[in-house]
Design brief:
- The complex is a heterodimer of chains A (about 110) and B (about 110).
- Chain A is mainly beta and about 110 residues long.
- Chain A contains no helices and 11 strands.
- In chain A, the strands form 2 sheets. In chain A, strands 2, 4, 5, 9, 10 and 11 form a 6-stranded mixed β-sheet that branches. Chain A has a 5-stranded antiparallel β-sheet with strand order 1-3-8-7-6, with no helix packed on it.
- In chain B, the strands form 2 sheets. In chain B, strands 2, 4, 5, 6, 9, 10 and 11 form a 7-stranded mixed β-sheet that branches. A 4-stranded antiparallel β-sheet of chain B has the order 1-3-8-7, with no helix packed on it.
- The radius of gyration of chain B is 13 Å and the shape is globular.
- The chains are: A mainly beta (about 110), B mainly beta (about 110).
- At the A-B interface, strand 4, strand 5 and strand 9 of A face strand 5, strand 9 and strand 10 of B.
């Protein structure tokens, strides 16, 4: 059974810093990995989707990498802003429908002005 | 990717009552998915809803408690029945899968008092 772990559980940094969020998964047989952002009490906004054949994806100040063999993904946020404050979730997709989508518990990020 | 409109965004309900959550998608989709996110936890899949057939429920979730309707390819509802304070959660609908990743609604924050 796939397990997804996110470290750290919480992170607080000053505005302007570059930061890295980590996601690890136990079963490397994944089709893709997706990073989401969740604001308090709200739904999920998809940030980046990395296919198993890809090494990284970029969108603006965000860069996500994937190393299937080691079971790791990272989300790099450049020049952080207070508006980046949210919980960031990663989810590994192992196929077979939505029951093949396994979420981590998230990293709660606070960017201090 | 698809756009999902979910409502209500939040509600406070009395124990013993029921709440129906609606999700409308801007394109036709075969499957829609319903999730629960309990406070401080990650997402748990409740059921998969296919148009024209009964929903498929995950272990620990039953139709009497979480009846689902799927009258057409763009709409679904989830009812939380006979609510207790333990049902206080964020409920989310989702579409997608495979190589395209998943898209989520804006969430319904339910508080049962």
């Amino acid at each position: 059974k796939q397990e997804v772990t996110q470290i750290p559980a919480a992170l607080s940094v000053p505005e302007g810093e570059n930061l890295v969020l980590n996601c690890s998964f136990t079963d490397s047989a994944i089709y893709n990995l997706q990073w989401f952002r969740q604001d308090p009490g709200k739904g999920l906004t998809s940030l980046l989707l990395i296919q198993s054949s890809q090494r990284e994806q970029t969108s603006g100040r965000l860069n996500a990498s994937l190393d299937k063999s080691s079971g790791r993904s990272t989300l790099y946020i450049a020049a952080s802003q207070p508006g980046d404050s949210a919980t960031y979730l990663c989810a590994a997709y192992s196929g077979g429908g939505a029951d093949g989508l396994t979420f981590g518990k998230g990293t709660h990020l606070i960017i201090q002005p | 990717s698809a756009v999902i409109s979910q409502k209500p965004s939040r509600d406070i309900c009395q124990r013993g009552t029921s709440l129906t959550i609606q999700c409308q998608v801007d394109s036709q989709v075969t499957m829609m998915f319903w999730y629960r996110q309990q406070p401080g936890q990650s997402l748990t899949l409740i059921a998969t809803a296919n148009q024209g057939s009964e929903a498929t429920y995950e272990s620990g979730f039953v139709i009497d408690k979480f009846p689902i309707s799927r009258p057409n390819l763009t709409f679904s509802t989830l009812t939380v029945s006979n609510m207790s304070p333990e049902d206080s959660s964020i409920y989310l609908c989702s579409v997608g899968g495979g190589n395209y990743g998943y898209t989520f609604g804006s969430g319904t924050r339910l508080t049962v008092v």
